[in-house]
Amino acid sequence: MKNPLFHASKVMPMLKAHEAFLDTYLLKVATTQEEKERVYRLRYDVYCQEIGYRPESFCQKSLELDAHDRHSIHCYLEHRSSGLAAGCLRLVLPDPAASDSDRLLPLQEYGGRSLNHPRLRPSLLPKNEICEISRFAIARAFRNKAINNETLQPECQHLFSDEDRKTFPWIIISLFLATYSLVGLTGRRHVFAMMESRLPRLLAMSGFNFQKVGEPIEMHGQRSAHYIDHAQAEKEIHENLIPFYLGIKDELAGQVSGLASVTPLRVEKA
Length: 270
Known about the structure:
It contains 9 helices and 8 strands. It is about 35% helix and about 20% strand.
């Protein structure tokens, strides 16, 4: 199985690729309502219109959001020259306003019984050290093909140069590096995610060694809970990615410094 990251490295030397990517895109932590709605709108385009993850009728104002967005940190990738949102992610923290018994991560709500690891379960770990990464989305215009062989046509392709297109394979890796940066910058350690089986194998090629900690459940395809220890993840990142990771972490550090690590962003209802 080919790793898209190292396929990209054949196009340009690794370090030059990192520099080119950070010159082409800007990573932003969404703090204003306008910025959050950019994230929700991108999620709507991908999760509702393209994948069918949630019915369009469920989403108001063409925005995809849920109750966990109120206690999540949202990050998005902006293409500098066009101003388009290229990708996004969220880091879900336990709701500080809920009682201890109700401070659940999303995967505990919809996959609680599938979480069968004897030690690595959110319910067995300190609430102030756990988090969940989810809602990764890449805008259709920044992918070479649509999801599930959809016929959705990308817009704004004329805005991208050949050099811009060479950076597209790096977007998914940059989002994961941004996630690890946010986990560390907010003082978290235990990271959970629901993933289809193919994604952990691809991430492992780049040094992101997620461990399966739950049985598969049906979530628009078979998905299982996975876990990674942030401290261990930082040690195992592929050495060629370390400059890229540090560059992303530096870009986000100033934006996160104004946020208390245990006081997540509040998200108003659309």
